[in-house]
Design goal:
It is built from two helices and two strands. By secondary structure, it is of the alpha+beta class. Strands 1-2 form a two-stranded parallel ribbon.
Length: 71
């Protein structure tokens, strides 16, 4: 049986880091009421990570996701 290591993930940023260990090209969209407090790694390509501030409309979310996917 394969043994999995349990991780304690407390923030979206920690989740993104853990997910990118499995999928390095994963695109991440952070949604936060405190968008200005989210620090994105300066070496991170803008096409892989973005932020949307809460509250946001469905149209704004759609536009942000389409931008990230290149549609």
């Amino acid at each position: 049986a394969r043994r999995q290591r349990q991780m304690c993930i407390e923030t979206g940023q920690e989740l993104a880091v853990a997910a990118r260990q499995l999928r390095p090209d994963l695109k991440v969209l952070y949604a936060s009421g405190y968008a200005e407090s989210i620090e994105i790694d300066k070496g991170e390509p803008a096409s892989r990570t973005s932020i949307i501030g809460k509250p946001f409309s469905l149209d704004a979310l759609r536009d942000k996701v389409q931008d990230m996917l290149g549609n």
